[in-house]
TrEMBL record:
It comes from the Eukaryota. This is Ras-related protein RABF2a. Its main location: membrane. SUPFAM superfamilies: P-loop containing nucleoside triphosphate hydrolases (SSF52540). It comes from Forsythia ovata.
Amino acid sequence: MASSGNKNINAKLVLLGDVGAGKSSVVLRFVKGQFIEFQESTIGAAFFSQTVAVNDATVKFEIWDTAGQERYHSLAPMYYRGAAAAIIVYDITNQASFDRAKKWVQELQAQGNPSMVMALAGNKADLLDARKVSTEEAQAYAQESSLFFMETSAKAATNINELFYEIAKRLPRLQPVPNPSGMVLMDRPAERVARS
C-alpha cells in the first residue's frame, strides 16, 4: 500500500538522435524488455509509457521516440515542447551520429524547457571493436554541456533501466496541480517562475 507521501508524477520524455542510433531499441528494451535486431525506422514518432518507482515518487514516463531522418526534423519541436526530460542518443560506432547529437543538445538548450533533464546516451556499447567515439570525449562533452552521460547497449540490456531511473531521480520534485479534467498537471518549480 502506498504511503500518503508518495507522489505520482507524469513526465514527458523525448528521445532525439540520428537515424540508426538505436532510439527505438533503447525504448523497446526499457518498456518491453525486448530487442529486435533489424528495427524498422520510426516514421514521425512513436509513443510509449512506462512507470518507474524512485524514492518517494512513482514516475510515469510518457515517451516520445522521434524519427531520426532529417526530413522529420521540423516535427521535433512538437515532441520536445513541454518535455520534462530528453535522451539524446548517439551510436558509439558512428562519429557523425555524435556530431548530430551535439546539434540536438544545442537546439534543446536554445528552445526546450529550461528545467529539462537531459541525458546523453552512447548506444551500441556492445560493439567495442567498432567504437569511433571514445567514452572520454563523450564524457567531457556531457560535462561541459551539463548533461548526464551513460553508455548503453539496447542489445545487451546494459544501462537501459539505469538511464531511465537516473532521469526519474533527477526530475524536479514538482507538486501535482489538480485540474478539472482529472489529469495531473505539473507546476513549474518556484525558482523558475521567479526568474522568468
